[in-house]
Amino acid sequence: MTFEEIKNDEQEYMMHTYGRFDAAIVSGKGAVAKDVNGKEYIDFTSGIGVNCLGYCDDGWVKAVSTQAATVQHISNLYYSPLQTEVSKKLCELTGFDKVFLCNSGAEANECAIKIARKYSFDKYGNGRQKIVTLVNSFHGRTVTTLAATGQDVFHNYFFPFTEGFDYAEANNIDDLKAHIKDDVCAVFIELIQGEGGVMPLTKEFVDAVAEICKEKDILLMIDEVQTGMSRTGAVYCYQNYGIQPDVITSAKGLGGGVPVGACLCNKKLADVMSAGSHGTTFGGNPIACAAAKEVLSRVTTPEFLAEVREKGEYIKKELEKMDNVKEVRGMGMMIGIVTEKDNAKEIAKKCVENGLLILTAKNLLRLLPPLTITYEEIDRGISILKKVMEA
Ligand SMILES: *Cc1c(COP(=O)(O)O)cnc(C)c1O
């Protein structure tokens, strides 16, 4: 098939839910993707923070293909050693007590929302079900996680949305306090707003939120779907802030390219979700768990985390030298670039034409390179970006 045929068939047979770049990716290795015409691209996207080990990493391929040839699915009516291994590893890495395995970020967030509401209902009865999220957040595309998302543009068409969400301004503790009323059961936040434009929360704000939550038995829940899996130089970003939330959610990088999500909760919440209160057909799928097990064994060592931080610093330094760069922000290998000319979308399109895959978020350029990207691949990508930025 030619690129034109693929593009035409996409128009004809698929719902038009995505604005796509003019490239059809068909294979990849490391941080290099190849399109249907054989053209190569340096990948600064990892999907959208998904392929943390890059394309077709040898260990990952072996784990997934071996598992596909062993058992591809069992129902959650039976025990699975892969599910228990992944859950145990997640708990050991974080100090959380229990894990629910699912298939996506939105699903992990749905689980967190259900835990918060049931915990509060069990303990305090009805009427304490509100969840405070932040303005400019992003939590997913289901009707409930859209409601949790603090951006008006997402609150359209699909009425009625799930009730019980309220939005406080990020990094404004007075505004957050004003939203903490007697009906609030949880505060649910990203520590670096990803889709919102790579906006990190301040340590002071996060500390203050943690303190209020603790004082009032309000759950502190962190959406680590984008910031997790060592993306920011710690296994989970909350570890950079020195807090211990009640719940975190994880997905994107967790499976290294297959759909896996997880919701982790602390001991206080261990028994909130009882038999029958939640479930999923595919969650904890053996192939997904084999992939997650490989990812977890690879990206969580102190040496690997140090490398993520070093590469992040190196990329930032190179970016700061470029023309048209107004600000570089983010943590580890989650990086946003504000351009002087406010032309991120145009730059991203030109990068693709020149052989570099790059993301945008709001009016920023956004980089989420594979964590295993080599310095040589980084340099190749940087030189393409430089050429486009300075054109
Ligand atoms: C991507 C993302 C989600 C949604 O994840 P899906 O797997 O697309 O459902 C939720 N929260 C954050 C912070 C994300 O970046």
Strand content: 15-25%
Query: Nearest-angstrom radius of gyration?
Result: 21 Å
Average pLDDT, rounded to a whole number, is 98
Q: Give the bound compounds.
A: pyridoxal-5'-phosphate
How many beta-strand elements?
17
Helix-strand topology string: HEEEHHHEHEHEHEEEHEHEEHHEEHEEEH
| Helix/strand/pairing category | alpha/beta
Q: Which blocks of ≥5 consecutive residues have pLDDT under 50?
A: none
- The portion of residues assigned to helices is 25-40%
Order of neighbouring strands in the sheet with most strands? 4-12-11-10-7-5-6
Count, helices: 13
Taken from the alpha-carbon principal axes, the silhouette is globular
Task: Write structural notes for this entry.
With 391 residues, the chain is of the alpha/beta class. The protein has helices at residues 3-13, 46-49, 58-68, 81-94, 105-124, 143-148, 173-179, 203-216, 238-241, 286-299, 302-320, 344-353, 375-389, and strands at residues 25-29, 32-35, 40-43, 98-102, 130-134, 165-168, 184-189, 192-193, 199-200, 219-223, 247-250, 261-265, 325-331, 334-339, 356-357, 359-361, 364-367. A seven-stranded mixed sheet has the order 4-12-11-10-7-5-6, sandwiched between helices. Strand 1 (25-29) and strand 2 form a beta hairpin. Helix 4 runs parallel beside helix 10 (286-299). It is globular. The protein starts with a helix and ends with a helix. The mean pLDDT is 98. It binds pyridoxal-5'-phosphate. Pyridoxal-5'-phosphate binds next to helix 5.
